[in-house]
Amino acid sequence: MNTNVDIENFILDFSNSCQKKQKKNFSKNEVVTTYIKNRNQLCILLDGHADLVRYDLNGNRTIVEHFSKNALFGEVFYTITTNNELLVEAKSNCTVLFYIYDDIFHKCRNNCKFHQNLSENLPQLILNKVTDLNMRIELLTQRSTRDKLLRYFSLLSTRNLSKTFELPFSLTDLADYLSVDRSAMMRELKLLKEDGLIEKVGNRIILLYK
Amino acid sequence: MNTNVDIENFILDFSNSCQKKQKKNFSKNEVVTTYIKNRNQLCILLDGHADLVRYDLNGNRTIVEHFSKNALFGEVFYTITTNNELLVEAKSNCTVLFYIYDDIFHKCRNNCKFHQNLSENLPQLILNKVTDLNMRIELLTQRSTRDKLLRYFSLLSTRNLSKTFELPFSLTDLADYLSVDRSAMMRELKLLKEDGLIEKVGNRIILLYK
DNA sequence: TATTTTCCGTTGCAAAAGCAACACATTATG
DNA sequence: CATAATGTGTTGCTTTTGCAACGGAAAATA
């Protein structure tokens, strides 16, 4: 079921017709939003790339999610239970729509075209998010750094329909995304190269197995 | 926004009125379903507890998700990209509704009460799942076994509104849920006790800090 | 109730991952 | 363009984790 076209149109409608929204642009490295208890914000990334980042008390930085076009984020999706900072950082110039989730559903009682579109399309958008999160969990449940790398590469390879692909992260960020120590990850990358499983040219990875 | 009552009613409606469904009972340890490519099944757990379990090629068992009342699962939420076995195992007697996702949305073009309810309530149900998955990711991104345990305990404590709570897992299963070695986890549990951070009486944990 | 199976708790040893530090390359920025 | 900031690649050492194995407790089952 390819719903991409539907979703494109829906988001356009959404971004043009809803009153209770804000549309903002951000440049690279700007903070798009910080997660705040009880605010219940819902955001749609119209364009660009951004990361949800957590800074914990040990000083570790974790990239919790990586967002690209049409990704959803905001407190609606996240029950905040710690004092860890959670922020969304723009990784490129990007455009974001902001809503308060409760508004959307209160207005849903009216029968306007916009809200009809909304209730038809939001499930699919959220569903995409769920599958993303499940892929993320599959990554994180790999027991070793090596397996995390291989799983991640295999995912990118599938997504690109090619054994060759660009990393969407710097290596430093990749470590924060896999939730491992950077130097340990570099060591493992070297081993993967030595074992002839991958090649790495700059930002480009080539899978050599299977 | 408390939507629990709505969702209860919706699920009742759902389970009584939809033609293209199956309702089945399972007893403890039975396999509820196996994830199969391109089937696109959607399941609702009406009652009981069940786990989504992955067996990987290294022989590791991972509890990917833990489901309780009203949880959603099935291939709709999961893009299968490996040959790892993914199965849902009943952890107690349970009742499950089975649908094929595509059917649900094709029928949505009609205006029957059931599908109106569906499109109103499914987003909220899925949203609950998203927040669950995000909590899961927060757990898995903890860098050490110790932090995973503490984070998990803190979650259960918040959920129970008490520093004392029952583990919903056997210790063996808990290790598979945190994606760590069981013996290493036991060692860490012992250290937590020795450091005076927790007490453990049978299946019951008592948090001693803060 | 007897017996098999699963789970708990522990340990020694090996392997993996984290930490800290550094040099060098690359990329931003005044 | 000069300089600062950030990212890459590497290494020695320490700590954590995983593995294998075992005995006993508890639970399921015949």
Summed up:
The structure is a homodimer of 210-residue chains. With 210 residues, chain A is α+β, with helices and mostly antiparallel strands.
Strand order of the largest sheet of chain A: 1-8-3-6
* Low-confidence blocks of residues of chain A: none
Kindly name the structural category of chain A: alpha+beta
* Radius of gyration of chain A (Å): 19 Å
Distance between the termini of chain A: 29 Å
Largest sheet of chain A: 4 strands, antiparallel
Oligomer: homodimer
Q: How would you spell out the order of helices and strands of chain A? A: HEEEEEEEEHHHEHHEE
Helix content estimate of chain A: 40-55%
- How many helical stretches of chain A? 6
Question: What do these coordinates show?
Answer:
The structure is a homodimer of 210-residue chains. By secondary structure, chain A is α+β, with helices and mostly antiparallel strands. Chain A has helices at residues 4-17, 101-107, 113-140, 145-160, 171-178, 182-194, and strands spanning 22-26, 31-34, 41-47, 50-55, 61-67, 72-73, 85-90, 94-100, 164-166, 198-201, 204-207. In chain A, the strands form three sheets. Chain A has a four-stranded antiparallel β-sheet. A four-stranded antiparallel β-sheet of chain A has the order 2-7-4-5. In chain A, strands 9-11-10 form a three-stranded antiparallel β-sheet. In chain A, a hairpin with a 2-residue loop joins strand 10 (198-201) and strand 11. The mean pLDDT of chain A is 87. Chain A binds chain B through residues 1, 40, 54, 58, 60, 62, 64-65, 76-79, 81-82, 102, 105, 108, 119-120, 122-123, 126-127, 129-131, 133-138, 140-143, 154-155, 158, 179-180, and chain B through 1, 40, 54, 58, 60, 62, 64-65, 76-79, 81-82, 102, 105, 108, 119-120, 122-123, 126-127, 129-131, 133-138, 140-143, 154-155, 158, 179-180. Chain A binds a DNA duplex (30 and 30 nucleotides) through helix 6.
